[in-house]
Write a structure and sequence with these properties.
The chain is α/β, with parallel strands linked by helices and 537 residues long. The chain is built from 13 helices and 24 strands. 26% of the residues lie in helices and 21% in strands.
Length: 537
Amino acid sequence: MNNNSDSLEFDYVVVGAGSAGCVLANRLSADGKSSVLLLEAGPKDTNIWIHVPLGYGKLFKEKTVNWMYQTEPEPELHGRQVFQPRGKVLGGSSSINGLLYVRGQHEDYDRWRQRGNAGWGYDDVLPYFKRAEDQQRGANNYHGTGGPLPVSDWRHHDALSEAFVKAAAEVGIPTNPDFNGAKQEGAGFFQTTTRRGRRASSAFSYLRPAMKRGNLHVETSALAQRIVFEGRRARAVEFKQEGRVRTARARREILVSSGAYNSPQLLQLSGVGPAELLKKHGIEIVLDQPGVGNDLQDHLQVRLITRCLQRVTLNDVVNHPLRRIWAGAHYAALRRGPLTIAAGTSGAFFKTDPRLATPDIQIHFIPFSTDKMGENLHTFSGFTASVCQLRPESRGSLRIRSADPSVPPEIRINYLSTETDRRAFIDGLRILRKILAAPALKAYCAGEVEPGPKTVSDEDLLDFCRRTGSTVYHPTSTCRMGNDALAVVDQRLKVRGIEGLRVVDASIMPDLMSGNTNAPTIMIAEKASDMILEDAR
């Protein structure tokens, strides 16, 4: 944008160009009339690794495009701090995530509706999933075509990932060709947000096609400092860019889409949050709202590592100079091969207890192994299968540490803080081991490396979870939607008690849904854009 003045005015100001913000920027500017400013703290999405699916491993600790947060020491994880990568770039976390397209269970959204969130049941949100989607397999009752977001099958044949699906069937977990169809339960292959072997972030899918519109303005390297209020009406956003503070006034609304960490942080910095916290940091109170930053939830994962009998894993490609060169050339020429691997190739959803109504565990299977995500792959042939508990009971919080917007917030997730959560991991690991011991994987399994065959008892398995468990990068619910006193936004995502301000991102989820959060966040923004445009009439 060429406008260098310190004061700007638009109909809508969107804070955060991530999975949700890019959707809002596209939909709200589509009429050619409403002026929209999109603010992004990070840079443009020019890093080459953003666009290569396997590049997420390179971006895991790339501070130019990643907030690289850490939790506080986690009491139930032996006091370990858990690394929390979040996207700081056009596209937000959809530019650095593992690309999996998983909507969750029908029952997740029906649960939201049953808790008083009218308009958010599965039948209400399905049209928005379909509107967003350009499904490679074509349209049906559950899927759409012609939308901005490409959803594709994996462009690489991998016998090991196929063997996992067959092994799951051998232990009674049915094969499911579509985790986002009639039901989620079963084993199969994940679909990804890619087009022809390249990442399709929300910046690629939604923002890029809208950039040529004269009524949409995008500012990068623009860190929001605070929302400016007149009484209890949000009027403007102050942001810092190249060392100077600028102000963008909103004629209609300010839309905060900064994610489950940065959205509550910005509200607290702006005087909307727990009064005691705001007083402590010398922030003038606009609204004492103790729910802002509460109810933080995230998916924990615990990874089993298996040594492979055959040299068919990504470890073997990466550790062999000629095979590595071949993989690069194959990708460059055809956009196929190992560089198209997402954060899960095949996987499964199952119940640890038959009395449960729906699966409580998700397995991500990937044909490579490493000590920690983002680090070098093992020198031996190996693969990984991880257990993720889908609906944790554990709740945490996000709190500002300072009135300075550049200071990272205090993140407490409290993983494994309930008996239900601990039990789910113990039982989930046991079921995963049964899959890995099934006949279909016999030709590949040379033995478990982590935690190893001596880890058998409940106590030892739980200790393994505490020592090694890490995030699956799905924080939600810190600006929760609802009707109770601690709910931050109402069913139209308006901040309760405030005018002219909405939150639109994963932070509004009433609770964590049973799957990966990118697709639901895009759905939320699609639905929100309709509500915003309706309310402007």
